Amino acid sequence: MRRAVFENPYRREADGQTSRVTCWVNRIQGDQFKVFAANCTHLGCPVRWFAESQLFLCPCHGGAFYANGAYAAGPPPRGLYIYENKVENGELKVKAGVLPTLANPV
Amino acid sequence: MSAKEKPITRTLVNIAMWVERRLHVVKVWNATAGHPIPKTSASWFYTFGSMTLLCFSIQILTGILLSLAYVPSAAEAYRSLQFLNFHVELGWLLRGMHFWGSNCMVIVMFLHMTQVFLWGAYKYPRELTWISGVALLFLTLAISFTGQVMRFDSDAFWGVGIGAAVLGRIPFIGGQLVSLLLGGPIIGSDTLSRFFALHVFVLPGCILALVALHLRLVLLNGINDYPKPGIQVNRKTYDERYEETIRKEGEPFFHGIDKDLVANGILLLVIVSLAIFVGPFGPGIPADPAIRIADARPDYPFLWLFAAAALAPRGSELLLFFVFPIIATLLLIGLPFYSNQGEKHFARRPVAILVVILTYLGIGMLTYAGLTGPWSPHMEAWSGTPTKREFIEARTPLELQGAVLFQNKQCRNCHALGGTGGRRGPDLSDVGTRMNQAELVRQVIQGGGNMPAYGNNLSEQEVRALVTYLVSLRPSHTIPAQIPSRPERTERVSTGEPANQAQTGG
Fold it and tell me: Could you tell me the residue ranges of all domains in chain B?
């Protein structure tokens, strides 16, 4: 599991650092990846990956997710949001840009 | 006018009279500062209203001064606040007064509302005064929240994220509401711009207009005469009785404001002292979504709601964020209608006292919980919290292996040993008295009761070591948990996903 940061494609000059988006990338095998949004599905706080316990944990209200993004514990209503992705010319491309919420889960 | 007066004095008097004939200053003054109020209403308990107004005045003054240096752009806001903190002469004091003035405004307004409620001042004929006050409460909370966003640090950034996530839960129109809130696809400069417009133009304008209405209503319907137990409010007789009180023992408003002046002086001292000795709040970590260690804790007025979101049963968010506020608003607005007449004095209204006690206890306890956040895992406990000797001493090699696993698999982040560690799950210092070997194996492998499953993360050997250690955790004078110690625990909230669905990834 690796943390990746990308510039939001809708970026404007005035956005400053806020256009940087964090996501969690899990290589399943070869060119197959699973890319998770960092936003917790409970109330949107940024989840962190803990390799030792193999869990994503949310600092706000203690939501927990498994390595495959599935719900593990706490108040979240569902598993992590998953971005579509594809590999082109050795680069991982992620279909993202909109803040994921329950109304608009990417 | 005597002939001895100098021409310059005469000219000044003439100018003053010219203005007075057109502006009617004296008339307005007599109708406001000079309007008669019941003598009894010059009370310490009646000072919270003017104190709220003082806070708002401080907010306007410091707000205008802050806006001279603040740049409402996502790229610049944070730096302009640091510029205010460290480079502008007394900029830190301005920021401190604006922050503490805001918190004081919410608190004093709440006290004002409590007093009006307990003293029955919302009853006939002051229903609209109460309703405009309720609107002012919501506007004040809104301006407080938008003000937190102005800081545009990590807290503010993720605070907006929480706002978006809350709106995203509304059925049907959630998506549109999120876009309306953010002003774009992400939390960025457009988001800050619209919060800025709300915070400095829309909301202050609304508050000023409503304060004017609120005060006008106070002048029209008179200040509440100090209630006495046993005296009932009756729509038919109240006005007559009030006018009689004014005739008999009325005095001009400005004669009775010595207590207001003292109370406001003290409040001003408190705000300035907080600004000087505690200082301005933040900005904290910059609003950079790429920084992993972010903690989105809202400002004081919203901590109770933040805590409620963590403690409410899973799936009750819609209830908490929409149904509950709507019911609470209707109850508040409806108060002067379903309690329009009768006893005013709190000594004869036990339910009113109970409501106040429960509200203060509820908000107080939730705020405390919001400050301590016991539901969040203690992210550094596994590596940073020492283990007391009694939890390691005289244990077998297998148990010691389990103790190491307990740390390395980060069990400690949620489970305390001897009171130190996370408080998300139960303290395991004496878990051996509560759960036996078989039960612990099941709990570790399958999870449940709000604990993730570790079945795919631990080998059979590791589970054996861990559980052997856990079973040994009990005071020497106690007996180990028996079989079956209690019925199988199956309270795990169903999600449609089996509890042991964990996968090892990496």
Answer: 33-372, 381-471
